[in-house]
Amino acid sequence: MSARIDGAVAAPRAQAATRAVRAGIDRDPAFGAVTPPLVLSSNFSFAGFGEKRQYDYTRSGNPTRDLLAEALASLEGGAGAVVTSTGMSAITLLLHALLSPGDRLVVPHDAYGGSWRLFNALAKKGAFTLITIDFTDPRALAEALAQEPKAVWIETPSNPLLRITDLRFVIEAAHAAGALAVVDNTFLSPALQTPIAFGADYVLHSTTKYINGHSDVVGGAVIAKDAEAATQLTWWANALGLTGAPFDSFLTLRGLRTLDARLRVHQENTDAIVALLQDHPAVRALHYPGLASHPGHAVAARQQTGFGAMLSLELEGGEEAVRAFVEGLELFTLAESLGGVESLVAHPATMTHAAMTAEARAAAGISDGLVRLSVGIEHADDLIADLAAALDRAAAAVAAGGRRDDRQNDRQNDRLNNRQKQGAR
């Protein structure tokens, strides 16, 4: 006889992987369905005049979406969560719920391009005052906090350069300055990092990524540390119409069940790929917190339970090398997004961060030669072979370009010498 679980997830004493698998399992009171049923109804009947049931309209509340919200709140250690239609909806929800005109918001200079675009667009409309800093610079952080911001927005690891922000240090500093702390945890998921354990007030996700893990649905979520804050978020999500669809929530909950197992393979593959990349002559720089040489390695080891499956590499030869690298890849698909079971490659300057100005990209360190990899769960040997061939193509393209440059220089020198000879005659 199976043990029934009170609540949407297994008891808090259970490990996170167990709670993710058991979310909503064996809780159907009508038929005893093991997997929770998908409730697609847009509206729900009243028991009678003036007698509203638990649910009345799916924008306001839905049983399937609530199961996902409860599971995410449990995994992140929060008091409640709101599931939104996209990751950008999650960001929009927090900005509306937390900030008013005149409030100051501190954000990272190397944030995801979509976040950067929204922050700057709303700041230009006067929704708030934006302060952009390098979170790895304590002096820049101190100067920003001296301006008494309403909220501090943290992204760690950062997208796409995998910079690490010390959660405990920054969150405590933010609270000391009277600011709320928001953490975008998309790159790691609650399987590898739980920012609320370090004092964060809010955690947000693009659930499109690792939480769903199959690149077949878009979604987002915001988890609040306190129950009152969760209630406020729920009100705003309903008012703004940002809540996620039931079917999307159903798919995401299904993906969540395998989060721990998937990430173990993701990380095993990443370790193997890093071993290939770190000494390859075509790679100018490798950005991965799992390397002892990474500036944020010690902090990442302290606040994360794994180093994740995202990495960026800078190729010798810039955009010409990038073109040769990506053209011919068989197992790394050139596409935006990340965190799916399939491996992806992106060129931030022309894809995920194209919304940033060239000046902002330069300030963040996002060069034209930077490539971002989302390592999937295919067999590691196949991924390594694909990347090795790509690196050889990039190196060959750079060498060919060098030979072209030499030939052009030779022709220019010949022309100059001929003119000099003619002038002498």
Give an account of the 3D structure:
Strand 2, helix 4 (113-124) and strand 3 (129-133) form a beta-alpha-beta unit. Helix content is 41%, strand content 13%. It contains 13 helices and 12 strands. The protein is α/β, with parallel strands linked by helices and 425 residues long. 47% of the residues are buried. The protein has helices at 16-22, 63-76, 87-98, 113-124, 138-145, 167-176, 227-240, 246-256, 259-277, 297-303, 318-326, 358-364, 380-424, and strands at 80-84, 104-108, 129-133, 151-155, 180-184, 202-205, 220-224, 283-287, 310-315, 332-334, 343-346, 370-374. Helix 3 (87-98) crosses helix 7. The strands form 2 sheets. A 7-stranded mixed sheet has the order 1-7-6-5-4-2-3, sandwiched between helices. It has a 5-stranded mixed sheet with strand order 8-9-12-11-10.
Count of alpha and pi helical runs: 13
- Globally, the shape reads globular
Percentage of residues in strands: 5-15%
What would the average pLDDT be, to the nearest integer? Answer: 93
Residues in helix, %: 40-55%
Distance between the amino and carboxyl termini = 105 Å
Radius of gyration: 25 Å
Helix- and strand-based class?
A: alpha/beta
Q: Could you name the ranges where pLDDT drops below 50 across 5 or more consecutive residues?
A: 1-7
Major sheet attributes:
7 strands, mixed
Would you count the extended β strands for me?
12
Helix and strand sequence: HHEHEHEHEHEEEHHHEHEHEEHEH
Could you give the order of strands across the largest sheet? Answer: 1-7-6-5-4-2-3
